[in-house]
Each structure stands twice: as structure tokens, then as C-alpha cells.
Amino acid sequence: MDSSEKLHDEVVNCRKCPRLVSWRESVAAEKRAAFRDWTYWGRPLPGFGDRRAKVMALGLAPAAHGGNRTGRIFTGDRSGDWLFRTLYRAGFANQPTSVSRDDGLELHGAYVTAAVRCAPPGNKPTLQERDNCNPYLQRELRLLAELRVIVPLGHFAYDALALALGAHQRPRFGHGAEWRLEDGRTVLCSYHPSQRNTFTSLVTEEMFDRIFRRARELAEGG
């Protein structure tokens, strides 16, 4: 029988993608000067959050000096700063910051994961690497029995989600677009809070907040 503990261990010990294994480990060994005192995680990242979550946020992949350093998804980088501030304001997190695995952060009713679990060079995983990781996402979707809303952050995550759902046809991706699945769950699309998107105001904090307010509304039956 599958379990969250079994999935966690398999993710952390995964070595399916030689390019990603080499990159994440070299980054962890070389480090960035600002983080020279850190012991980098340097391994794949499991999902993080409430096992009774009704809302899932699905990102692209860990940042080389973010999650790959801290050992927690979306932790220690600017995209994560945006995400956890928003989750806090929407009532899904007990604090607005996420800086390390032992910082006291807890999620309530929410779960955060990624399409690819290792930091990729240039923040660009290949489609094969996405596909290698996809069974982990499939298992998360099954294990989160109370899940009602899935928020893919960006087109890459949306495609990975469609693959995990076995959906050959789906609505066009767009910020705020909704896709009601046959099982009653809702896919609620959002632009990724990457520096490129936030610096150019393709996504603003108000836009991002609206997504997770809507996610809460849908999760509560709205």
C-alpha cells in the first residue's frame, strides 16, 4: 500500500535523471558565496504541507540556491517569498515567510509541490525529466484524498498536471482560467511568481492573492 512516508523516501532518494543529479550535487558542493555557511540539501524535494489539504499549489522545479539549498520546496528564493506570503494572507499558512526547514512554517489545508523535484540547469527541465518525475505527482494526487483544487503555477506545471491526470484535452492555460474535472476537483491556473513575471508585472501580488482567495472559495464549495 502506498503512503506519504513511502513517497517521501522514494522522492528524496531518486536518481532517475543523470543531468539533474549531476547539477544539483555540483551546486550543493560549490555553493553560492552568500550561502557558504549552509549545508546544502542537494537532493530531490518531496512535497510539503497538510496531508488533509484541499488546495495544492504545483510549481515548476526547485531553485538551485532555494529549495536545493534549504531542503523544502519554494523555500529560500523569491518565488517562494511570493507564494508563502499569499498563502498566509489566504489563511493557508501560519506565517508569511519560509526560509528553512526548521523555521516553524505550517500549512493548513494546503500542500505545495513541483512538477520536477530536482533543481535543473537554467531552471529549465527537459520534457523527459518532467515525465520521469510525473509518477510522483500522480501518487500525490491519489494520496491527498481531500484535495478539491489544484493550482498549477505556469504552463509547464499545467502540462505536467494534465499528464498526471491522463487528460489528452484540456482548456487553454491562462491566469485565472478554471477547469472542472469529472471527479469534481477544479484546476485553477495561475502565472508563476518568477522574478521575470513579477518584475514585469505579468503577475502582481493582488492578482496572485485573488487566485488563492478563489482557491479557498472553491475548496469550501463555492
Secondary structure blueprint with pairings:
Elements: H1 4-12, H2 18-30, E1 48-49, E2 55-59, H3 67-70, H4 78-89, E3 110-114, H5 127-143, E4 149-152, H6 155-165, E5 178-180, E6 186-188, H7 195-199, H8 205-219
Parallel strand pairs: 2-3, 2-4, 4-6
Antiparallel strand pairs: 1-3, 5-6
What is CATH's topology name? Uracil-DNA Glycosylase, subunit E
> How many angstroms separate the termini?
33 Å
Look at the structure and name the CATH superfamily: Uracil-DNA glycosylase-like domain
Rounded mean pLDDT score: 97
How would you describe the shape? globular
The stretches of 5 or more residues where confidence is low (pLDDT under 50) are: none
The level 1 CATH classification is Alpha Beta
Strand order in the largest sheet:
1-3-2-4-6-5
Number of strands: 6
C-alpha-based Rg, rounded: 16 Å
- Alpha-beta content class: alpha/beta
Helicity level: 25-40%
